[in-house]
Amino acid sequence: MSQENAKTAETSVPFWKEMFSSKNMKLLTRPFGADNPVTVQVLGICSALAVTAKLQPALVMAISVTVVTAFSNLIISLLRNTIPPRIRIIVQLVVIAALVIVVDQILKAVAYEVSKQLSVFVGLIITNCILMGRLEAFAMANKPWPSFLDGLGNGIGYGMILVVLAFFREIIGSGTLLGYRVIPQSFYEAGYSNNGLFILPPMALILLGIIIWIQRSRNKDLIEKEK
Amino acid sequence: MLRNFLDKIKPSFEKGGKLHFLHSTFEAFESFLYVPDKVTSSGCHVRDALDMKRTMITVVLALVPCFLFGIYNVGYMHYSTLGQDMGFWSYFWFGCTKVLPMLIVTYVVGLGIEFIFAQVRGHEVNEGFLVSGFLIPLICPPDVPLWMLAVATAFAVIIGKEVFGGTGMNVWNPALLARAFLFFAYPSQMSGDNVWVADAVSGPTSLSNIAAGQMDAVPQLSELFWGLIPGSVGETSKFCILIGAVILLWSGIGSFRIMFSTLVGGVLMAWIGGLAGSTDASVLQHILSGGFLFGLVFMATDPVTSAQTQTGKLIFGFLLGMMAILIRIYNPAYPEGMMLAILLMNTFAPLIDYLVVGRNKARRRKRLTLAMKKQNA
Lengths: 227, 377
Description:
The structure holds 2 protein chains of 2 kinds.
Chain A: H1 2-10, H2 15-19, H3 22-29, H4 45-50, H5 55-79, H6 88-110, H7 112-118, H8 120-123, H9 129-137, H10 144-173, E1 176-177, E2 180-181, H11 185-189, H12 201-218
Helix pairs in contact in A: 3-10, 5-6, 5-7, 5-9, 5-10, 6-7, 6-9, 10-12
Chain B: H1 2-9, H2 23-33, H3 52-81, H4 88-121, H5 128-138, H6 146-161, H7 174-185, E1 194-198, E2 201-204, H8 206-212, H9 221-226, H10 238-251, H11 256-275, H12 283-288, H13 292-299, H14 310-330, H15 338-376
Antiparallel strand pairs in B: 1-2
Helix pairs in contact in B: 3-4, 3-5, 3-10, 4-5, 4-6, 5-7, 6-7, 7-15, 10-13, 11-14, 14-15
């Protein structure tokens, strides 16, 4: 990667073209589908179950995680040559923790109600496996800009799944979206009622399973080869 | 005549025929009406008259007394609450108008999904849903809205069965999964505290009375046994359940070990609970109340989801019975624990089998090494 970048710089291609080259864009978009951190790598499940009962906290969580993955990837990638390998985990954790505290404080200042709903789960972004995974697998070995894109892509890939889960859980479980009633009152009068199971975390796991099912039946490459 | 008609239309469903994509639908109807005509031509086989179709039909037959009594009881509860004495046939007729739509809905939804999956996956529709579809209305209260029943059936068949690969591959009992879905999804309709007695009237079940400590309101033991009490459709009459148990045991389809050890576990736990002063109900009241016996006879013995080994069956049943009464006595949120206990033990059944087989292997290995030593010495 670094050699290639050096080569393109010599031939004086405009820097934005190089920044958004197809290779870099792939870093950004691959986690949306074929390399999704939640449905393919099965990381970050815990928070995906916990914060998706309603759409609003899920959106906020998605944005928070995206910000933290993108910037922790960027910072670690900048520091990568100075970090002694034996203590790299603790350095990564310090960076993540600092960013999470910043995000947490901003949420408390700007959107106090949502931050109360998310409760410990903002703090628990620190333990989200996607973060450490990306730092270890990508940022420690790549330049800052691709690392930033990789973090951004993984954050969005995680966020997409959260939003899809929260959309179905809120609309079926509570009959609302972002707190606004979308299922008309006449439905309830006709005997419809909200499905309480969708409020409970187990249903989020089942929905996640269904998403993985759909994704795998569309993309056969994801199915493990039989031995 | 029917045979001729089937033979005439058969070629169009076979490979190359224009209706081949409906192959499994045709196959299902043909073997439903007649004995399957496939003959195994190679290899050696253990032969038995008991194929899956016959097993399933026997279980359905064993359920018929509960079903008929359930219909009668629904009508009886309705009219006796209204203070009317209408006679047997009007009780029965009223029950039919409540229970038959439930049965039709579960069969249409469940079999519909099974047919679709069979077509898409290109295998044959099998008889697995006949029993589940019959059980689901029996374990629901008579006033459950039909659309909820349809959603729950669809959930149970798709998530409980088809994702694991269809009949015989499921981890949990599909009928109970449908009930659990209703229980958690629509708790206001399915709380278990108050059940339907007549239109727009609901009353507490014997179990919710026990949980609330109102022992005066619990029906007499004989009433609990004969079953003219409010409850889910099929579980009220313990007498009809016993008839079903006899049919299952006589035909060898239900496992005696599971039934027996579940009963022992339940009795023991109810006895301990009584000694500890945690429950006011006697052992017999616990055993005869709610779905304990129904679950014990028709659901715990499900050959797919229970333990397979002989020792495993004993362990499975014993823990199941204890768990059911344990949940009843010590968890105030759930007056009835049988459903959750069976689903929980379904989850652990493979582990129990694994341990039993492992122990057996270890024992035999030990015996072998002993014999070898003896020979060498």
